[in-house]
């Protein structure tokens, strides 16, 4: 953080943003947003929708392990946060498609970077886990 109360992440964000609270405080709005976008279902949904609009069942089929209830709740929360739009086409039956908003478009780059990092570094993490588990078993 700079002296004027702004922060920047070198090599990641080129601009600074005003600090709006203490992200380490439980009731900080920024922390609540980080909780939302850091949730595994939110990340997977946003990454998929970054590729283009999708219907509910297509999302459900693509995201192994997500229940219908959890997918519905997460989509609703992302819509409330302004990250996902729910588009309804008045056909018979009604067709509902979900897509990202421009705000989420800004987030997709960071999520994609995070996903690629995880894919590249999973072997290093797995080795660290194995070393940790071996020490704990002794």
What do you see in this structure?
The chain contains five helices and five strands, in the order ββααβααββα. By secondary structure, it is α+β, with helices and mostly antiparallel strands. Strands 3-5-4 form a three-stranded antiparallel sheet. Strands 1-2 form a two-stranded antiparallel sheet. A hairpin with a 5-residue loop joins strand 4 and strand 5. It is globular, with a radius of gyration of 19 Å. The chain starts with 5 loop residues before the first strand and ends with a helix. The relative contact order is 0.10.
As laid out across the biggest beta sheet, the strand order is 3-5-4
* Spatial gap, N to C terminus: 42 Å
- The succession of helices and strands, N to C, reads EEHHEHHEEH
- Overall strand count: 5
Biggest sheet layout:
3 strands, antiparallel
Helix content range: 55-70%
Total of DSSP H or I helical runs spanning 4+ residues: 5
Radius of gyration: 19 Å
Q: What does the average pLDDT come to? A: 86
Note the overall shape.
Answer: globular
Q: In percent, how much strand structure appears in the residues?
A: 5-15%
Low-confidence stretches: 1-15
Sheet/helix structural class: alpha+beta
């Amino acid at each position: 953080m700079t002296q004027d109360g702004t922060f920047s992440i070198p090599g990641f964000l080129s601009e600074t943003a005003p600090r709006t609270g203490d992200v380490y405080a439980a009731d900080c709005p920024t922390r609540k947003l980080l909780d939302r976008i850091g949730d595994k279902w939110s990340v997977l949904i946003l990454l998929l929708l970054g590729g283009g609009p999708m219907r509910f069942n297509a999302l459900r089929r693509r995201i192994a392990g997500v229940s219908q209830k959890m997918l519905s709740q997460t989509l609703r929360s992302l819509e409330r946060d302004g990250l996902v739009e729910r588009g309804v086409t008045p056909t018979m039956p009604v067709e509902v498609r979900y897509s990202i908003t421009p705000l989420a478009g800004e987030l997709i780059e960071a999520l994609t970077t995070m996903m690629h990092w995880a894919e590249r570094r999973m072997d290093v993490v797995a080795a660290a886990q194995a070393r940790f588990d071996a020490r704990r078993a002794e």
